[in-house]
Amino acid sequence: MPDSLTAARTDGKAHLLLAASGSVATIKLPDIVRALSHHPNLSIRIILTSSAKRFLAGQSQEQPTVSSLLEFPNVDAVYDDDSEWGPEPWRRGAEILHIELRRWADLLVIAPLSANTLAKVVAGMADNLLTSVVRAWDTTGKIDGVHKKILVAPAMNTAMWQHPVTGQQVRVLQEDWRWFEVLPPQEKTLMCGDTGSGAMMEWTQIVRIIEERLELGNAEANGVAAVANNLFCQLSCDSPKTNIFGFGYSDTVATGILDHSSDLDYKAASPIDILAWFELGLLSSSHSCFCIWQRESVAGAFCYNTVQVSSGLLVRAYCHFGYPDTRRREDPAATFLSPIPQLRLFSLSEAPLPSESCARGIASPRTPAGSSTMSASSSRAAVRSMASLSHAASAASKSSSPAAALLAVSPTLSLNCRRSFNRRQFQGLSQVARLQSLQSSRTFATTAKMVPADKYWGAQTQRSLGNFKINQPGDRMPAPIVKAFGILKGAAATVNMRYGLDPKIGEAIKQAAAEVASLKLIDHFPLVVWQTGSGTQSNMNANEVISNRAIEILGGKMGSKKPVHPNDHVNMSASSNDSFPTVMHIAAVLEIEGSLLPSLKSLRNALQEKVVQFEKIIKIGRTHLQDATPLTLGQEFSGYVAQLDRNIERVQNTLPHLRLIAQGGTAVGTGLNTFKGFDEQVAEEISKLAGTEFKTAPNKFEALAAHDAIVEASGALNTLAGSLFKIAQDIRYLGSGPRCGLGELLLPENEPGSSIMPGKVNPTQCESLTMVCAQVMGNHVATTIGGMNGQFELNVFKPVMIRNLLHSIRILSDGMASFEKNLVHGLQADEKRISSLLHESLMLVTCLNPVIGYDMASKVAKNAHKKGTTLKESAMELKALSEEDFDKYVRPELMISPKEKK
Length: 902
Fold this sequence. Notes:
43% of the residues lie in helices and 14% in strands. The chain is built from 30 helices and 25 strands. The chain starts with a helix and ends in a 13-residue tail after the last helix. By secondary structure, the chain is an alpha/beta fold. The chain folds into five domains: 2-213, Flavin prenyltransferase-like (Rossmann fold, 3-Layer(aba) Sandwich); 219-452, no CATH class; 459-572, Orthogonal Bundle (Fumarase C, Chain B, domain 1), CATH 1.10.275; 583-620 and 632-830, Fumarase/aspartase (Central domain) (Fumarase C, Chain A, domain 2, Up-down Bundle), CATH 1.20.200; 841-894, Orthogonal Bundle (Ribonucleotide Reductase Protein R1, domain 1).
């Protein structure tokens, strides 16, 4: 099988590696495969864990045998653990199956992902074929040369899904390991009888997401695309200098010609819009309009209606019929449906009506010879009729068939129409413009930037995704910011309803915002930190997600901006300039209170326990890395506790400034477009939703233009990092050895320390924490620079400042928790080693200073060091004092505290 995998990597198809782990939802795997079987350019290989195979043993028609999966036309192989590990032994030179599968796959989808496999993945285990593929995944894209995603659809009972461990594990996949995409489970009554969340996402939705991620489209879309591309080539190739616009529109889905490799612009329009453009003079008499929509599909044949409008006049209607032809064509103007005869020329009254799913657009400035013309008024009436009757046509047909269109206007930009097809969409059709899947995206009335149909974000977010492609794992806007946006928008809606916002709209916004605050919609916030310095794109992302979710709640159409508009309603009384600073402070306070301070206080208490445990163990002190006078190990650790006590105070002292929020300052701090009292009321509502106090900033100009509170908080974390670095380094050095180092502390044996030196115990937790501290210090430098960049009325380094602060909070919180759990609790003192070093130290001579004087004490120490004797032997040799007096005065236990006054 590995040999065929090597060859299959260059077969020109899209490659889906579909896996299932042990969950009842495995019975949906055949449905997923069946739904994808009509894609001839898709190759599927399946991995089943041993537990997953128990659900596909031929129990019923719903649960067929594993071998039956191979009957689907595009399933090329089904693997289990024996495919790699048995029964034949592996031989040198043979290929490794899990590596070859990783290289072969364009996308790995694990549906279902059981709780057990989720835990294995997060823990980095690789004990079966599936987890080996996941563990060997190229997470950076530097090995296989391409970034590839892993989609996981968790499926487990409600108690498992709601378990805190599951939340932590999912957070690792979503926030830390950005090569994963988690498809959230649905709420329903599970087969086990539980009612609640945990059921795998509906399999039909998983299919749509797979088609979108692999840009598969579907057979109907391919046919529509062929018609559109035929028209494109026929009308455009004779006019190479043409600015091409492509778009689509539908009730639920839409598409456009998207070729991001060329300098294309995109606009969307309805027939009414197009007619208005003519009437307003935005389009001249040289422009033509084509409307293409699918009427029916019979036995693989496609029938399309095309209406051409020129200068606002309906001049020709076509009906095309044919079968998809996937043979390679060298002529870009060739026909791509074979055959496509013009069956008849409709009159105006006979022109077929489009369904709601028709796509509209304007084509190249060319009118076919012999086309008839009609009056402008009758043509306008026809176009308006097409729009007004779309609902009736859609209802009558009960169809949401896709359609496509083209738009081209004046010859202003050189464009080579001989572009290659995406091989995953139209195999063999190599020299036409690329069309996205017609069932995987939607568009809006002002843009044709395509938005995935299953996402709540809108045009502004989609545009930002294209404009800021600076995306590495960990670069997405942090989840605490998303949560804070949900809190802010919900609070603002509550207050805005007091100032005139429709209560119906306001309540829908509050419900949607609550879902955002719960991070239920985290997958709908794809933007990275590297955007405009005001955070405007992320604010619009929040507005669009909440708007579309609210529209959905009210039964409206996503993307319509009706009845909930992202700017007019969700962003009412607000600007990005005051909204983003507000969520910065909300997120910072919640993370400091919820994560940092609990971890810091817990570590402090754990170290205090060691103070008590070690209080009677006397050891040698060290200054300048040289021997010094004694102290107890407990005293040494008490210094660490005091450091953390001071750091707790410093961090808490930053909170009063972070509790002051900018909301109500709007654009520059004046409060334009708000009402008196809005700022105070929104602060009160935020406090209720956040569960902690916030107040309106007394000076909004400072709140927008400067972020000294963020720099101050980062500075406190920087100081904490310095303290933790010192503590970790001390413990690291005190645990060095075991025989040739200090060896006073015994570190927990969490893992083998070396792959070549047996028995080695490395201070891994110390090293990890000190690296965390170094990163926090670096974050503070960037945050400080960000704080300096508040030119005039607005700071424009907001996203990177809050990203660094939250990153520091998170890694310090996790780092301290790990240090406490995996090191401090298990830390022990080697009392024998401590006593040996104590009595070998020459610095005990210090206690003789008051008895024999500094000069004689110095001679005793130097003589002992030179001759390798003990202090006592040296003192006896120099007759500095008697043996009885030496034993009387040289007592370490008397050297660890001040003397009582005589």
